[in-house]
From TrEMBL:
InterPro entries: DUF2834 (IPR021362). The chain crosses the membrane at residues 20-40, 61-82, 94-114. It holds the Pfam family DUF2834. This is DUF2834 domain-containing protein. Keywords: Membrane, Transmembrane, Transmembrane helix.
């Protein structure tokens, strides 16, 4: 499946799927940061609290989106933990992606996790077949 996706989105031989994930993260960071500038004065934690307070109290549409993103994020974090363990991404990295997603934005740090994961998978594909067998033992 990854090879099919890579052929679809990577138009040159030097471009890798993880490049696409990083590009998504950069666009997400720019897009979300431009909308969050008003919360920066309160600091990373205070701004996050203020943001979620606004998201949950301003109107029904905002509440819907906040709840939807929260529940989707919960499922995504479970997937990140399981997949990270399967491909050998350490718990410290998972914790970083989790905290950064909460404080900065899930749309930025999930693609960065996916880039990290893809680089691990690419390295495993390049390794001898013994390395590929070890991946199956984790999951």
């Amino acid at each position: 499946m990854d090879a099919l996706v890579e052929r679809r989105f990577c138009h040159t031989p030097d471009m890798k799927l993880w490049h696409v994930y990083v590009a998504i993260a950069v666009v997400a960071l720019i897009g979300t940061t431009s909308q969050a500038l008003g919360y920066f004065d309160a600091g990373p934690v205070g701004g996050t609290v203020d943001f979620w307070d606004d998201a949950l109290t301003s109107n029904d549409a905002a509440r819907f989106l906040a709840i939807d993103v929260f529940l989707l994020g919960t499922a995504v974090f479970v997937l990140l933990a399981v997949e990270g363990r399967r491909v050998g991404i350490g718990a410290g990295w998972w914790a970083f992606y989790f905290v950064a997603s909460l404080l900065i934005g899930i749309s930025t740090f999930v693609p960065l996790f996916l880039a990290h994961r893809q680089r691990k998978l690419d390295a495993m594909d390049a390794a001898p077949s013994a390395g590929k067998h070890a991946v199956g033992q984790h999951g």
